[in-house]
Specification:
The chain is built from nine helices and twelve strands. It is of the alpha/beta class. The chain has a single domain, classed as 3-Layer(aba) Sandwich (Rossmann fold). It has a seven-stranded parallel beta sheet with strand order 3-2-1-4-5-6-10, sandwiched between helices. Strand 5, helix 4 and strand 6 form a beta-alpha-beta unit. Helix 2 crosses helix 3, helix 3 runs parallel beside helix 4 and helix 5 runs parallel beside helix 7. The protein is globular and about 55 Å long. The relative contact order is 0.14.
């Protein structure tokens, strides 16, 4: 039985991932600082993961105990995109996303971990007019979040003894117990169900890749269970904001000036070639959110 450490395992993706894991095959430990995740997000999942409350930057007190006897690390923890960045927030983002990752990598090497799977982001492509960007195309990170994620993934890939895998995740959407309502599709569904206008920045023409959170969970299991190494774009579909609005069949919109000129259209062919394919369509994921909304909120 393999022993897993999942950092940030009580959050949005983690609470979906823990529900996909077969407890007869894996013994699971979670390291989370509760800044976003909640223990109640992983109740009633059919088994009891070991939960360690701690910070990925705290090597001696938190990371070493959490890494004891671990075979594989799935590193989800990190600070995500913020609406604005002060110097303090920029420093904290680097401290967590880069510094915390380096601590985990150092301890993983010392503890002879056999595999390290890192949650990066397609956001590192920033702005690129080219369609079907591959893993070979040069990233263009345009905010502190994406820059720190790119720096961290480069550090991950250096640690060859850990058989590193970097999953550049598309923007997640869909239901999990730790759902984030600030993500585009989730937020738009919420506004629609509240009969409020959708906030659209710019003209809605910029591209972005999307994937349902349960398919993201399956992607991590696929990386865990197969002999993968290196970088993979992980997503389901590329959409513009105006495409999402059309799918929602909703016409209340308030337009605002463009905040950040981010646009990228990504190819997932490399990851699909390993045998993975998403199960949940964008239409199905949106409908599921709409049906759950009255119960969740």
């Amino acid at each position: 039985m393999k022993r897993l450490l999942i950092t940030g395992g009580l959050g949005y993706i983690g609470s979906a991932l823990l529900r996909e894991i077969d407890p007869s095959r894996y013994k699971v430990r979670v390291l989370d600082n509760l800044s976003v995740g909640r223990v109640q997000n992983v109740l009633n999942i059919g088994y009891k993961p070991e939960i360690v409350i701690g910070d990925i930057r705290n090597k001696e007190m938190d990371v070493f105990p959490a890494m004891e006897d671990v075979d594989v690390v799935i590193h989800l923890a990190g600070l995500t995109t913020l609406p604005s960045y002060s110097p303090e927030l920029i420093g904290k983002t680097a401290s967590v996303n880069v510094g915390g990752t380096e601590v985990l990598l150092d301890v993983a090497e010392e503890c002879s971990v056999s595999k390290f799977i890192y949650a990066s982001t397609c956001n590192i492509y920033g702005y690129n007019a080219k369609k079907n960007l591959s893993e070979e195309d040069t990233p263009n990170p345009i905010n502190p979040y994406s820059r720190t994620k790119y720096l961290a993934e480069k550090e991950v890939l250096k640690r060859k003894s850990l058989n590193p895998v970097v999953l550049r995740l598309a923007t997640n959407y869909g239901w999990s117990p730790g759902i984030r309502w600030n993500l585009v599709i989730n937020k738009f569904v919420m506004y629609k169900m509240m009969d409020e206008p959708l906030p659209v920045y710019g003209e809605g023409n910029n591209w972005r890749a999307y994937i349902h959170v349960r398919d993201t969970a399956r992607a991590f299991l696929h990386a865990l269970e197969n002999d993968l190494e290196g970088v993979y774009n992980v997503g389901s579909v590329n959409l513009r904001v105006k495409d999402i609005i059309k799918l929602l069949e909703y016409d209340k919109i308030t337009y605002f000036p463009e905040r950040e000129n981010s646009s990228y259209h990504v190819s997932f062919d490399k990851f699909y070639s390993t045998g993975f394919y998403p199960h949940i369509s964008i239409q199905g994921g949106i409908k599921d959110l709409e049906l759950r909304f009255g119960v969740v909120v």
